[in-house]
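Please, structure for the following, as tokens.
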Amino acid sequence: METVLSIKGLTKNFGRLCAVNKLNLEVKRGQVFGMLGPNGSGKTTTLGMLMGVTNPTSGEFSWFGETPTHHLRKKIGAVLEHPIFYPYLSGQKNLELNALVKQCDARNIPNVLDLVELTDRRNDKYKTYSLGMKQRLAIASALLNDPTVLILDEPTNGLDPMGIAEIRELIKKIAANGKTIILASHLLDEVQKVCTHFAVLKRGNLIHTGPVNEVGQGEERVEVNAEVENLNEVLRGFSGTATVQRENGFYEVTLRENFHGKDLNRFLFDQGITASHLVTRKKSLEKHFLEILADGK
């Protein structure tokens, strides 16, 4: 896969504070890459350097294998801060002004409005938009020049659950159209739902990077219940059982490596027991993230 972004030893100091410390990362074409970390971890500073808003102290990065230039950055759309739109102008007029500033084709406006589902509200004044609509208009603006890469900094910040769900589906839709997306977020559940890969930053240091689908691999935990008096003993008799504990009205079985919920279900069936409840629980990104942060002290 083509490398869209390559970061080598990227560092940013603000006086004695090291906001980003010798960061090394690669993002491949077509990935939805999430940058995770608590406040102050260096996510926004990193995105600022990648977009030329902030100058690095040392290190380097390249886009599409080339040294960053103003011309090259036209292939990148970004929503870094709260974008500035004119409140008394319509969404349509605001995009027309942005197209003029970016020197891109205004004929793309209907396409981006349709993508972010604002076509019906295009003639309404910006000040009448909800927070979610304002964020979607910002993303529409970032897509005006049909960029190869879209960068989003905390795209769901301040939104209600419906707004978060709308942005999540929009990100999936944009990714399905073939664009590479880099987003910074502290909402772990959202990253797990939309990202293909992620990196974890802590106090400016990269402490983990990898595919999202690797999260939860390893030990499986299975919630089990059945109308059997000695279920606890039966579960302990399964060769794939590591531990059994009672929790929330169920037995929670931690399985040994290479054993799965279907194996436990087959074992119970062979014992003449039909489980009334059997659900496999894999490790969530939140638990994985907290373990990573704890290990990367």
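The CA atoms of residues 231 and 261 lie 16 Å apart. The first strand starts at residue 3 and ends at 14.
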